[in-house]
Amino acid sequence: MKIAVLTSGGDSPGMNCAIRSIVRGGIHFGHEVYGIYRGYAGLIAGEIAPLKLSDVGNILQRGGTILRSSRCKEFLTVEGRKQAYHQLKKFQIDAMITIGGDGTFNGANALYKEFPFPMVGIPGTIDNDITGTDYTIGFETAVENAIEAIDKIRDTALSHDRVFLVEVMGKNSPALAERIAVCSGAEMAILPHKVIPYEEIYAVIQRGLNRGKRSSIFVVAEGQTSGRGQEIKEEIFKKFQIDSHVCILGHIQRGGSPTAQDRFFATQMGLKAVEELHAEQVKEPIVTIVKQSQIQVTNLKNCLLKKIIADDSIAKSISITSI
Hints:
By secondary structure, the protein is of the alpha/beta class. The protein has 2 domains: 2-138 and 258-303, Rossmann fold (3-Layer(aba) Sandwich); 141-255, Phosphofructokinase domain (Rossmann fold). The chain is 41% helix and 17% strand. It contains 10 helices and 11 strands. A 7-stranded mixed sheet has the order 3-2-1-4-5-10-11, sandwiched between helices. Strand 7, helix 7 (198-210) and strand 8 form a beta-alpha-beta unit. The longest helix has 22 residues, at 139-160. The protein is elongated.
C-alpha cells in the first residue's frame, strides 16, 4: 500500500512526532509512505515525494512540521479537489492521512464525498477544539509556552504594581485561555463568545487592592480579531481610570519543542492511523482520538464541529485560585 500524509492549517507542536510514527509504522508493516508538502495546496500542485526512515530521524523534538503547511482556498472548490484527487491517482496513492484541525477535516470530508478514498484524520491543533476527542496534538505545548511567558510577565507586574492583559490564541475556543488562566494563577480568563465583563474586571482589581495586592494578570482570548486586549485596556481606563498593559503572545504559543504529552499522544495517534489502514478497516473516513487517555477511532463526521462551550468547573477554579 502507498500511504500519503499531509499537515494542513495552523502548525502545532507534535505534528512531526505523528509524521515520524506514520513513516516508521508504515515501513514496519511493509508499506510505502509518501509526504505531501504544503498541505492541500501542495496536494493540488503534486508536491508529493517518498519518505524514508532517514527523512524522519531527529524530528521528534522539533516543533512545526517538516512537511510544511498552508491554508488553501483553491481546495474549497470542486475543481481544486478534483485536481487533488488526480494527483493522488497519478502517484498511485492508496490512502491518505491528514493531520490538522477542523478546516483540515472538513476538507478531507469534502474530498471523500466527491471521490471516495481511504482516509484517516489525526487532530492537530493548539486550540483543542475538535469534537469527538478529549485532546488535540499541540494543546499542552501551547499552554506551557504561555505559562512560561506569563511567569516572566508576573515579575514585571509585581515590580511595578501593574495590571497586565495577556492575550492568548483561541478565537473560537475557550480551552487555551481557561487552562492557561488556572495554571498561571491569573485573576480571570476573558473568553471568546462572551460579553467582556468590565464591571467584574474592576471589582477583581479593586478586591485585590483592598487586601494589599498591587498587581493583577488577566488572560484574554484573542476573539475574532487580534487586539481584544487593547480594546479592554482602553475601556477600563475610560470607565475606571485604571491603567493596564497589554502583552499579545501571538504565534510564540505555537512554536518550540513539543512536551512529553504531545509527543506521546502524537506518536500513538500516528501508529493507530497506520494500523487501521494496514488492517483494511477504513471503509469510511475515520479519526484517531483520545478518550480517557486511550487512543481510539471514530467516524470523521463526529469530529467536524468546533467545541466552543466553556467549562464552568474550570471557571470556578480560576475564581477560587485568584482570591
